[in-house]
Amino acid sequence: MSSNVITIPGIQIEAMPWVDEFHQWLTTVDHKRLGILYILSALLFLVIGGVEAIIIRIQLIHSHNNFVSPEVFNRMFTMHGTTMIFFVAMPILFGFANYLVPLMIGARDMAFPRLNAFSFWLSFFGALLLYFSFLGGSGLYGAGNAPDAGWWAYAPLGARAFSPGHSFDYWTLSLLVSGFGSMGTGINIIATVLCMRCPGMKLSRMPLFAWLNLVMAGMVLLVISPLTAAQIMLLIDRYLGGHFFDTQAGGSAVLWMHFFWIFGHPEVYVLVIPAFAFLSEIIPVFSRKPIFGYPVMVAATVSIGFVSMSVWAHHMFTVGMNSYANSFFAITTMAVGVPTGIKIFNWIGTMWGGRIQFKVAMLFCIAFLFQFLIAGLTGIMQAAVPFDWQLSLSYFVVAHFHYVIVGGILFALFGAFYYWYPKMTGRMLSERLGKWHFWLFFIGFHLTFDVMHIPGLLGMPRRIYTYEPGRGWDTLNLIVSIGAFIQAIAILIFVANLIISYFKGAPAGNDPWDAWTLEWSVSSPPPAYNFATIPTVASRRPLWDQKHPEDPDSRYE
Amino acid sequence: MSGATVSFHNTAVPWQLPSRGKVAMASLIFAESAIFTIFVVAYLFYVGKSLTGPTPREVLEVPIFFTVCLLSSSLTIHLASKFLARGKQSGFLALWLLTIVLGGLFLYGTGQEWHRLIYEHGLTISTNLFGTTYYSLVGLHAFHVTVGLVMLLMVAIFGIAGRVGVSQSERIEVLSMYWHFVDAVWVVVFTVVYVLGR
């Protein structure tokens, strides 16, 4: 028992009845429990979104397949995209931020615990609203029982004439509601990082995790707002007879594209910056070296935040913008690669000369480095406007952004699970199952998404529900689908690992990785109040100072 | 390192952090500004693109009096919070109620204008692009004024009950930040709708 846990001698606490326990979880305002709720709900929707992906891949496994109808296929890719971005990626990253930021900066909770709970429940009920469209979308009356306009819902597909019934309204409302939740979380993270740091935790001493999540939260405020505004306009069009995106009354379909992508592209960075945050904590610990180039990492993150706000229209090169706009967005898109490249350089610099421990968490991070680099390179290829004209809306694009989101963000997330699961549960995840998970997922990922580039180059458009035989796409699509199944098996192993290790995993202790940030100074799982006494820190690695009083970091600041 | 005893030396360091209420309100204002920006962009993008009438030049009248009301309410709320910080509760309450009256007048002005547009000129949100963008932008602002007035009224009720004192001063300042923001947005909306868009 750590000295940081308050124990009252002579008092035995009995286990609560499950109803009380459940009630406590439902009404909790504790940042750790809310973090876990975020993560659990995201894992649930990860499985649902994964099933939708598998349905898509079964349909495309060979030419002229009849596994699902074209209508169902449209619903599946719409629901898959919407679910994965809004109800898997964002909540799971918010969950980790919620859990870890207060612990890392030596605070007892977030700045606004009740706002925190409110944000989580908005996000969760937003997700339920989206899936309620299967029941409430007037599907029985022939109107389609789930949104099917694609996750970006280009006008006029969102108009009443093309999306009758209520399924599309649920899509709009769900994004609106969960968007308010995201804004609440963004505000909360900013206030927490700026106002709740423990004594001595200057901004220049904060763990990079807190820094990167601060930038992410700022971007959330700037990025979710345009989406919210656009959804309000869409609701006005659908319900009050407005003409924002109604071309017959002089409205513009292109304006919706701009509004959507002003949200849509920076959103990628909202998702990937927390992934960078995981790497910036995990790689130093398993390289046994402090992070290389801390100030440059912060500067690069902030500049990614700025530059990524001005790249959105590279999604629209084929719309027919003038050549000045095309050149501007091509240049900014290439420019955003520079700070990202600096980051990759710094992580390699951290590993260079370190005593690298190839734990599962580290394996996922190393895979991230290579895969994110390739994803970035195909991104730079598409920043070249003529190249984009050729490949826009093809499977090459699908392969590219899945390389970012799966090969980058999801791999970093798995690394984060293996690294912080011991802190959250008090049990180690099995390294043996973890290695199976890693290698199967790694092989499945590369089978699917490396190969997927090729049908794109051969001209296979995205979002088609089937294709003609004899175009050279059949074998490639078969390989892609097989890879998807291997990934699904790997995910099942991961879920099994989470469940088995929760009951049978080796006890973790406070600090299983011999790490340096404050969350490892408290018990696993941490007590409700986090820190019995608020710590005072004197360097970027407060725990190193504790363990090595003869050679503390603070001496070199 | 299980069971390692970790204790931190609690040497007192000078430590001051910004108020979380103000930081949060500033963040909210940042996000709201982005929402308003999108509506303003849509308004400007669609100026002169309506396929049918009425046009802004035909029907809009510049609401100078109500604009003066709203902008001066920024001054009264600022003075009110200064009074509260100095512990002068009756001065605070009087200026606070004046702020509510000025805000209410502005809202009345918006309602009057909408009534005139709808019943005299037949302009609704579905008439043309001008109607759509005008009612959404001005309506979004009026919605924010309404939310602000509800919060101001709550404070007024507590103030009349004698429950608002110096210790609430910081919260009142946070609320007045929001009210200043609503006023500043009106300056933008006014410029866009009544000056540039006419």
How many beta strands in the DSSP annotation of chain B?
Answer: 0
Task: Count the domains of chain B.
Answer: 1
| Rg of chain A, nearest Å | 24 Å
Beta-strand portion of chain A reads under 5%
What does this 3D model show about the protein?
The complex is a heterodimer of chains A (557) and B (198). Chain A is mainly alpha-helical and 557 residues long. Chain A has one domain (33-556): Cytochrome C Oxidase, Chain A (Up-down Bundle), CATH 1.20.210. Helix content of chain A is 65%, strand content 0%. Chain A has 16 helices and no strands. Chain A has helices spanning 18-26, 31-59, 70-104, 113-136, 167-195, 208-240, 253-287, 294-307, 323-335, 337-351, 360-383, 385-391, 395-425, 431-457, 474-504, 542-547. In chain A, α2 (31-59) packs antiparallel against α3, α7 runs parallel beside α10 and α8 (294-307) runs antiparallel to α10. The two termini of chain A are 33 Å apart. In chain A, 55% of the residues are buried. Chain B is mainly α. Chain B has a single domain (20-196), classed as Cytochrome c oxidase, subunit III, four-helix bundle (Four Helix Bundle (Hemerythrin (Met), subunit A), Up-down Bundle). In chain B, α1 (20-45) runs antiparallel to α5 (129-160). Chain B is elongated and about 70 Å long. The model of chain B is unreliable at 1-5 (pLDDT under 50). Chains A and B meet through α5, α6, α7 and α16 of A and α1 and α5 of B.
Question: Could you name the key traits of this structure?
Answer:
A: 557 residues, mainly alpha, Cytochrome C Oxidase, Chain A, globular, B: Four Helix Bundle (Hemerythrin (Met), subunit A), elongated
Can you give me a brief rundown of this structure?
The complex is a heterodimer of chains A (about 550) and B (about 200). Chain A is mainly alpha-helical.
